[in-house]
């Protein structure tokens, strides 16, 4: 990623590609397009084999099980392991091609960013650390990835990833060397990774109007993300911590108050929120116009933002959302926030069905290679749904 994965000097295949949008697409054609940036024929062959294995293997997607699902040749195990962990190919180029593929299917103008918590045993896998997982309420030994997703027909499709590296990894030369972490990779907080994903997706798509949707409800420095998005003139819907200090708009000298306290004092407003798949939900929301704190003393408070939350009878915590879309209706902004559970469902589906959790390698390049392959497999399944277990004849043809 970001040029850190070595590539060969051979010329790239032609990029004059017509992106198929029909559901009858073969896996061979899809694979040859998504992985056309791989320089060597054998790399593209093993990319297709690994992709096929992810789609047809049931249960745990270990390299050995992938190989067994697609071939009876015992050498395939080592070849797949070599391809994903050691072969020099560029994650960015593959994900750029995947982004083009998804974009051809006319995604919604919303970029969803979400984290993937990948539990690991031991401390050798790159980036593994002790992290608190808000969804489970537990502290886990895991890798922490942040992914960006595009929405097509109610499906959230992954088009980029960042691996969070703690200072325990970035400041340890021996760990860096063993995991093959590039010099350019240094510690960044989650909000900085989110901005990094936004910048990369902006460069790939050229879109200036897509709205960023992200849950940062446990990020103490969420203000850096909010100001960063504002500087980029990027509209957003961001779940913020309940204790975030905001300034009520419309008051001559407002005093800071927590987001939760301010919303709790607001009256209910009824809204009919459009949901993915053409459905609707009647609900009640609390909302208030606010300014962010952090400006210089005596300066103008800047543009207002809308703080809102849904009021539901369940006891489970409900996100508090902050958005720059102050001129949109509550129903419209609520419909954007309603896309976020679909992103979490996509990550869960990749864990359960596509092998997101099953990478056995330990290196930085290998992690990104696996994430690219899993993302490509999941996107094919969601858009084309034609995967079936290969026949023995097909399996034997895999070298």
UniProtKB/TrEMBL annotation:
InterPro entries: IS701-like, IS701-like_DDE_dom. It holds the Pfam family DDE_5. Residues 35-259 form the Transposase IS701-like DDE domain. PANTHER family: TRANSPOSASE. This is Transposase. It comes from Streptomyces tauricus.
